[in-house]
Every structure is written in structure tokens, then in C-alpha cells.
Amino acid sequence: FKGDKSDMYTPDALLDAVVKTLVHEKGDLLVTPWFSEAEALGFSEGQFVVAVSSELFRDTLNQRFKADVAEICRQLTGAEVDPVFLSGEQARAWQAEHDAEGIYANYTFERFIVGNSNKFAHAAAVAVANEPAAKYNPLFIYGQSGLGKTHLLYAIAGHLRKARPGFNIVYKKGDDFTNGLVEAVRSHSTSDFRARYRKADLLLVDDIQFIGGKESTQEEFF
């Protein structure tokens, strides 16, 4: 979608901002359990598409939160937004169809500005994209905010979406991983939580520092 402030947000950033606003308005207990495993897929023709873990989550979000999410998106971006929640095959089909023209098209290796301070990180990321698990497994990229770490993660994912369409790619932020684990323990669904990550061909974790100091989360992650 196009709005006065829409370019300020990547899909992930917009979803984070929406959830934070909902938590402030409705409370953590009413919001976080339903959004802990949600994943922003992208923007398309006025829609903000979000993947969720099951049909129950999809139906609940549509019934309880759709109008609120639309209004918060309008306030944040200045555009009229239609939130769409997808699960299962619908989510995977949408992602396969739109990735090439969505966020991955904006964050590619070709668009990454390489300099002396980041050329090794760039080369390592390219190596992982070309031969996953063959080199730098795991690959850990460290640097201050705004230097392109997330750009490289998206570039790896975008490259592999095209090169290996059947790859199961899971992208998560460190705090979302933690929140998802907490909710899985609370709802006695840790086996489903673990299966999602263990089935991944490529696991990308942004802002992994958020699991620092959380021993049980680190143990589950390792």
C-alpha cells in the first residue's frame, strides 16, 4: 500500500508496532497469546498480510482484532489498510506468489552497500545463501543498529526463495521466539512450537540478543 508514512515500515516493523499498540490498549494477556506466533508476510494491493499458526488463530484474529489492526495501521501509515490473516497452505501460497515483489525485492545483495566495515559479513551471507549449511553454520552477524544486519538476513532469504522454492524458511525476532516459547509452555503446546523450528531448512533470527539472560529460552533455542 502507499501512504504518507508507509515507507517508514517494513512488514515486520508494522506488525511489531501494531501489537505494541494493541497491548497498550487492551492489555498483554488479551493480545500477546494471539500474536506471539504471527508473522508479517508483506503488503499487496492495500492488504497487510499476516501468517498465523492455525485456523483457530486466523478466525479469532479476524473476529476480535481485524478492525482494531486496520485502524492502528491507518494511524501509523496514513493509508487505508485491509489486514488479512492466513494460515497453512493459504499462507504458503501467498508467500510463494508475492515474495519476489515484496520485501525481499527491496532487501537484496545487489542493493546492499558494501564497504570496508561490512564486506566480510556480506561475503559470509552470500556464501550461506549459495550453499546453506556448507559454510558458516551457524552464521552470527554482530554490529550496531542501522548497519545492515537485517538487510543481509532478508537478502539470504530472498535469494533462497528463488533458488530453492521448496526450502522451509523461518524468520523470527529474538523477543518473538521468547514470547512464543512462553505461550507454548502456558498452553501445553511445546511440541508444536519445537516442530516449527526443527522442520526449518533455514532459520533466521533477528535481534537474538533478546534471549540473553533467559536461560530456559537459550536452552530451548540451542
Question: Could you give the topology of this structure?
Answer:
Elements: H1 11-26, H2 28-35, E1 39-44, E2 47-52, H3 55-64, H4 66-77, E3 82-87, H5 88-98, H6 103-106, H7 119-130, H8 149-163, E4 169-173, H9 174-186, H10 190-198, E5 202-206, H11 215-221
Parallel strand pairs: 2-3, 4-5
Antiparallel strand pairs: 1-2
Question: Can you offer a commentary on this structure?
Answer:
This protein has about 220 residues and is α/β, with parallel strands linked by helices. It has eleven helices and five strands; from the N terminus they run ααββααβααααβααβα. It has helices at about 10-25, 30-35, 55-65, 65-75, 90-100, 105, 120-130, 150-165, 175-185, 190-200, 215-220, and strands at about 40-45, 45-50, 80-85, 170-175, 200-205. A three-stranded mixed sheet has the order 1-2-3, with helices on both faces. It has a two-stranded parallel ribbon with strand order 4-5. Helix 1 packs antiparallel against helix 2 (about 30-35) and helix 9 (about 175-185) runs antiparallel to helix 10. The protein is globular and about 50 Å long. The N and C termini lie far apart (about 40 Å). The relative contact order is 0.11. The model is unreliable at about 1-5 (pLDDT under 50).
